[in-house]
Amino acid sequence: MSSDWSRTEGLEYLKDKVKEIKTAMLTTYSEEHGFSSRPMGTANIDEAGNIWFFTNEYSPKVSEISMENSVSLTYSDVDNHTYLSIVGEATVQHDKEKMKELWNPFIEAFFPEGLNDPKLTLLKVEPNDAEYWDSSSSRMVVLFNMLKARLTGKQYDEGKHGKVAL
User: Distances in Å between the alpha carbon of 94 and those of 56, 62, 69, 133?
Assistant: First the structure.
């Protein structure tokens, strides 16, 4: 079933789910290595829908983004049957004020020197396409509906699915 949300409703849904799920698989591409994915903790999603991450400026992902900045983010909440697929343009941001705004003690585990760590930088992903799947049902409800579909011969209704207008 597809949703017919307005841009504002879709963006609010996207922001809520990204904040709720928090960890994304970031996929980059390079001619030398092909596709490469790694988990990334979301620092924030701002009012415009831009998604922010702290990262190491000298990591392979930053090098890959400098050559090809189209990236994919995948958020998955298996327990709540909610999934997001986001495609966007990534840029490296050396904005110290933005770093201060987004900083939290968890980041210090990766960057022990804190905001003064010379490797610390931000990755900003500006989404240009997003798709979601959301049944928002408990595991028991999902299993019951699958069994019901099997017994009645009708197709299983997997919940809401659609694109977010960006």
Answer: 11, 12, 16, 34
Measured distance between the N- and C-terminal CA atoms of the chain, rounded to whole angstroms: 20
∠ at Cα 24 (20, 114), nearest 5°? 90
User: Considering just the CA atoms, what is the radius of gyration of the chain in Å?
Assistant: 18
Interval 61-101: pLDDT, tens: 999 999 999 999 999 998 888 899 999 999 999 999 999 99
Q: Which CATH number is correct for 7-164, 2.40.10.220, 1.10.10.10, 3.40.50.450, 2.30.110.10?
A: 2.30.110.10
Asked if 14 and 38 touch (Cβ cutoff 8 Å), the reply is no
Q: CA-CA distance, 16 to 14, in Å (whole number)? A: 6
Q: Is the pTM higher than 0.85? A: no
